[in-house]
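Case study.
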Amino acid sequence: MKPERLEALLWEQIDGVIDDADRAELEAFLTEHHEARELDQELRSLADGLANSVELDPPMELRPRIDRALEAARPPADTTEATQPRASRSATEGKRIQVPVLAQTKPRREKQPTFRPLSGIWSSDTKETTTDQPGDSLPRGFVMATNKKGIIGAFVAVAVIGIFAIGYFSLNKVPTVSEDAVGAVGAADRYRAEQITAEDVQIEQIELQAFMQTDEFDQLINDPETRKLLASEAMQNAMSNDAVRMALANDAVRNALANDAVRMALANDSFHEAWANDAFREAMANDAVHEAWANDAFQEAWANDAFHDAMASDTFRQTFSSDAFYKAWANNAFQDAMANDAVYKAWSNDAFRQAMANDAFHDAMANDAFRDAMANDAFVNALGHQNTRVAMTDKAFMDALANDAFQKALADKAFQNALASDAFQQAFTNDAFQDAFASNAFRDAMANDAFRDAMANDAFQNALANDAFRDAMANDAFRDALANDAFQKAIANDAFQEAMANDSFHQALANSAFREAVANDAFQNALASDAFQKAMANDAFMKAWSNEAFSDAMAQASVRDALANGAMVKALESR
Amino acid sequence: MLVQACLQGDRSAFDELVDRYQRALYNAAFRITGSVDDAMDVTQTAFVDAYEKLHTFDPTRRFFSWIYRITCNQALKLVERRRPLAALDADAQSTEANPETAYHTTEAGEILERALLELGPDHRIAIVLKHILGYSYREISELLDVPEKTVKSRLFTARRRLRTVLLERGFAP
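After joint prediction, the assembly is written out as follows.
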């Protein structure tokens, strides 16, 4: 009995899962072999030692900590937006910026004031009231809806416009308007001519006045980050752009601006640069991104350093302006993924950003399976791995992303686990593996349950770590074999997996006769047989492949046909 | 029943779930992270996550399996985040452990615990679930959401690795 099999059977016996036939075989072997009995004793001692580990008492302070955290937590099934800052859920989440949100900032989608660009400023189709911020510099003639149902959105709009008005007219120089922009905002010129005073605007709306006297409004106006943002040339230039103004006319964007974290993000240099970028501004005018602004995960992303760094990258901005990216934000799985540290980390990586800017990646984001995969820990962990990110820049990987079989595989837990494994990651860096990855045969194989299960199996992953195995994967005959039912069935078999973990198997894979044989129907039929699988797990049989005469013989069609013959398999069984 | 009561607004029902499972979850978290502080953080976060997402829990499954997976995932994420910063230092981990516990009272127990900390998280968790917490292959498969076959092969590799580590330390079980 091979040492691996002996050990496996001993553990099965200790675990109480051994079947009768194996127990009989094991007992007979133990009777005859002293070393086996010693190993049995050793394994039992190890199991006893582990089982006798004393269970720890949780520290006394744990329970009060949990109670305090639960007090601050959102009640289950409460799907309303939090209007108060959430307490830090744990020390592990401490580095995320908590997002205090102004009261009543939830967008009201019904009967909102219908802002439209008018002479460079917004007006309402409904009853108009001239407004102002007391003692400050709101633009003269600013008109605001007084529709009661739209009043909350209007409050925020006033706040935002107030902020931008301050930045636009008071803090710094008058912004330069490009030639192209003049037509669109030409009528706004009048606002640059003079400083607005409180007398210029009358406030008749009591609620509006009340809001403007609140701490929240004061906070918005006096927030240094906001002032820094507004004082920036990039932002002022951006304000001269239709797309930016259209973005600011959107409730979701304005509401998001009431969020501290978002304003801090907007004050970030990378964002200033981004505002100067056409693709980014176009993105800001996009309906899908407006919707995304209302999303917590999206707002949190803006507060994240890695996201800022990513913004400085052209490739990321390209992604940012893609419809697929915004549509993906509407998806819960994608939101979960985007709130994940590993994804943030990936964003700060060039290779990942490059991948994200790729059309195939965008297409993949539109796919449910891919988005679900993105929310999966194993896949996200894989993204956190440099090798995955490098692999993602590879054409083969990107092509695979667009491939149905791969997408199906991505939705499979076994494959996700495999992706996150070290051996698989290592394989990604290997040319032969990437070739295999790009091959239809390999992708077909990935669509197969048994193959995916095998991929999640340590033995298969160990095999992946082996050069000969990976080289074999670059071989058409072997890849054809991978896509073959009989081979896939064999891969799911313990004996075959043992064989795959075996050096002799790896050596045999380096042998062209073996690879050809593997791709041969007769051989594959034989592979489906238990006896043959056991033979494959046998060292002597596998070593025979390195024998010239044997491999020459196996290169003969007639010999391989003989493999499919019951008698030959029986002979193998008796080995 | 407790989950249902909690979803209907009864917070005390969730308190009972905390009473019932905090010990097991803390132990699992400690075995994965190897640190008392981290284990407390993970346990706390797992309960809060479970509470906030209780409406997403599938009542046809066991609550413990669900929260156990949350705990394991949190613990694994923590270990993964720290992995690039510093390899697990068995000495540091053991001194950080709660001295009031009986866990390190025997030399053999301490050696075994240190050896466990040298395994990768996947392997460590497989051994902890099987040998320390006493789960069956099927239960581990459900907890980790991997096929039973994977559990089996992972355990095989993990036990081998553990034996090798123990032998390298001159300790034959």
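Observations recorded in class. Confidence is low (pLDDT under 50) at residues 78-161, 163-211 of chain A. Strands of chain A lie at 116-118, 121-123, 128-130, 143-145. We will return to this complex in the next lecture.
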